[in-house]
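subagent[fold] <- orchestrator: predict structure for attached chain, return tokens only, no commentary.
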Amino acid sequence: MTSSAVSTSLEASVLGDASPSKPPPSDGIVLRPARLSDIPIMGNLCTDAFAPDPVTAYLTPKAHMYREDNTQQHRQGCRRRFLNTRNLSIIACLASDPSTIVGFGQFSRLGDDNGAKQFVRDRGLRERLWIYVLCWFFYFYHIVENTLWPDRITDKARMKELESWVADDNEIYWKPHPERSVRWHANSIIVSPQFQGKGIGKKIMLEGLKRAQNERVIMGLTASVGGEYLYRKVGFELLGTFSHRVPGDDSEGGGVMIWYPEGTNSKN
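subagent[fold] -> orchestrator:
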């Protein structure tokens, strides 16, 4: 069986560029490193981008009733990834108004090779110590937040079911292949619905791929049905479809994808 996407609170990739006939990215969009203060906007972008997804409807059937609960989940997920020394978070904003964030990408550097260690070292000791402090602060902050404003939208049984599906896909596509453990992984590529179809998601992805190309390592991701075609346009190949799909979703396509850097023999 196949699935069209992954959990809104687990790792997911949405290119957000569903109209390939629309114009390429405007020079009016600039990229910059994400800041902690960007997290609330990133959470809102996730809520809007994932709203029509069938997996969202399956996992959080009451999301349309309690938007803030949905945004809180996304906000916490974005923050946890941001506060990881192996994470690269990129913001896309308007050049004319840098406060207007129109998309973002979050990538993780996996593996225990020299490239992964160097990426962590490049952040500097002071930044790593600050991240460590913030991790603990937000660990308890999230506990308090979830206690005061408990989740009213998630079907916990379905979420547990989806986690097992994700684990199944990891067992199929990643764990049996040690050579794939050293990679960049695109966790989320999100673009505001109002700015989709302008190549912004592609622009964010290419920035992440530059890292992978320079390090000569692969990049992996999970693609929605609509995202698969667009990821193929930047060189990704489909390893295989998802092992499961949510009930009632009859769409075809999407799955686990991989990108190989130029000038390597990674396929072998």
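orchestrator: received. Logging for downstream: DSSP finds eight helices and seven strands in the chain. Strands lie at 29-33, 87-94, 101-110, 183-191, 218-223, 237-240, 255-259.
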